[in-house]
Amino acid sequence: MRAIPDRARTAGKGRARAAASVLAVVTALTGASAGSATGAPAPAGTGVVLDGPETVDAYPYERFDDSLQISVRNQGTKETGPFSLTLDTTSLKGIAEVTTCPEKADHILVCKRGYAIRPGMSEEFKLQLRRVKGAPVGASGEIRMTVESNGARLASRTVKVTVPDAGLLPDRLDRTPDTKKVKPGSSMKLTGGFTNYGAAPRNGTIAVLGYDGMLPDEEFGNCEYSSYGDATHGGGMMQCDVRGLVEANGSYDLDFGSMTVSSTEVSGGAHVSYRDGFEWGRQPHHRGTGRELKMTPRPASAPQGDPKETHVGFGFDVDTTADLQAVGATAEQKKPQDRVKVTVGARNNGPAGLVAWNGPEPGEEAAYEAIVYLPAGTEAVTTPDNCLKSKDRRGAVYYGCHRAYDRDNPDFWIEAGESRSWDFDLRVVDRAALKPGRIQVTELKTDGNTSNNTAAIVVRVPGGHGSGTGGTGNGPGSGGTPGPGGTSAGGSGGGQGSGPAAGGSTATATGGTGHGPLASTGAGPTVTMAAVASALALLLGGGLFLGLRRRGRS
């Protein structure tokens, strides 16, 4: 809203009364005003407006929306000068707390800006508002906001704050021990808790606990359990009908017992939510036969916990590794003009497994990339669909290869001993120029042996000429390591791809890379793990879904 400039005061009593009437109506409707009758008048040409909600709810957790987004906008013709936003939250004592701005006095917060707002520009403030534990549902107060600059009040606004019925909220899920890394096969104890932020008591709740990378050591008689696939990797879900009176503003804790950490996972975690009901649908499950899982009132001296809107949880790393090895190839051309087929790949030597995808959806964000430089003196005739051709900083051609996602035969998990491979059909274009190429796989934080992350690609031709005898492919002509954006520190690579070869036959790779032959990828179980990155997230509306870590056989 624009402040009334000095020149308007001389335009006649009628116009002055009209302007004052409009200002009064707008102020009454929006709760905002420009200038103040009790402070120094705003300078001529200054028109600052405080934009924000008229009312807002105070929840006991931080919300990630714009419910308390405040904007200081300059709609005038002059700069404001350095300014401050003052928040008077005195009436919110015992109801809610406002943070973000420093507290100058008791419940008086001041955000200072040492710069001016130019005409047509604005300054945004995202205020954090949280309900105080014990505040009754329906209680309300106000946040009185003022904007001042050089002793003049430029704008003001009042926002009403109300405490809603937030229901029963999770506020803790702890593990003992709580070290960042845990030993494979070790045991940890899980305890959780919740608080009733509703207006009335309630009779019990349904506790839903999802876990990954570990399995429970006991099964409670009032809980139902479901595991992912064969459960050898750890991971599942339990839902428990917990009985008892839950008082309004009461906090309660549960002892979920101990769990054993998987020896084939590099990480794990758990999360818990509390609900009015839960349906398994078609997901297989069974009831436990052990003791009853009970809730106990939380002592007043205990920490209050940190309530969340849907769930609370934790994650951990397992003190193990998954050795990702590059697998190269050696191929021999039987006669001139024959095409040469090389199969390169990556193998997980374990002892732990690897996820194939890091993204929130299957097929998104491959866990690793294989960089393939073809041998100098050759060119690609055919390349895998999921290998992207690029150039490094020196212009050398390489292929960035990922594992393709097959919806009909999805694979989300790479077991110890399993491999992924890519086939290249090559043509020798310069026998004298043959030099080894190489394949290099991404260095993962869980890889305990990075010395085998590079392997040679060797092509031999009749008459003793060839691209080398093996090794790591780090010699001349093997290509540099691509940097960000598909570039490299240097090196030379293979030639350009072209159309189908004319005539001749195809020779295939006959050897390995000095690191062992490429493991078979066509036999054995197909391991799947859907939505691993979101396995510790609760989906609203349809019950809890920790991730489809189902492992079937192709």
Helices and strands, with pairings:
Blueprint: H1 13-30, E1 32-34, E2 48-51, E3 55-57, E4 69-74, E5 83-88, E6 96-99, E7 103-105, E8 108-113, E9 122-126, E10 128-131, E11 140-149, E12 152-162, E13 168-176, E14 181-182, E15 187-196, E16 202-212, E17 214-216, E18 223-227, E19 235-246, E20 251-261, E21 267-275, E22 286-287, E23 295-297, E24 312-318, E25 322-327, E26 329-332, E27 339-351, E28 354-355, E29 370-373, E30 378-382, E31 387-391, E32 397-401, E33 413-414, E34 419-428, E35 437-441, E36 454-460, E37 482-483, E38 487-488, E39 506-511
Care to describe what's here?
The strands form 8 sheets. Strands 25, 26, 27, 29, 30, 31, 32, 34, 35, 36 and 39 form an 11-stranded mixed β-sheet that branches. The radius of gyration is 33 Å and the shape is flat. It contains 1 helix and 39 strands. With 554 residues, the chain is mainly beta. The protein folds into 3 domains: 6-162, Immunoglobulin-like, CATH 2.60.40; 168-318, Immunoglobulin-like (Sandwich); 324-511, Immunoglobulin-like.
Shape: flat
Tell me the fraction of residues in β-strands, as a range. 35-45%
Question: What is the alpha-carbon Rg in Å?
Answer: 33 Å
CATH topology of the largest domain: Immunoglobulin-like
How many β-strand runs?
Answer: 39
| Share of helix, binned | under 10%
Q: Give the structural class.
A: mainly beta
Mean pLDDT across all amino acids? 79
Largest beta-sheet characterization: 11 strands, mixed
Q: Spans with pLDDT under 50 lasting ≥5 residues? A: 1-38, 469-481, 483-506, 510-554
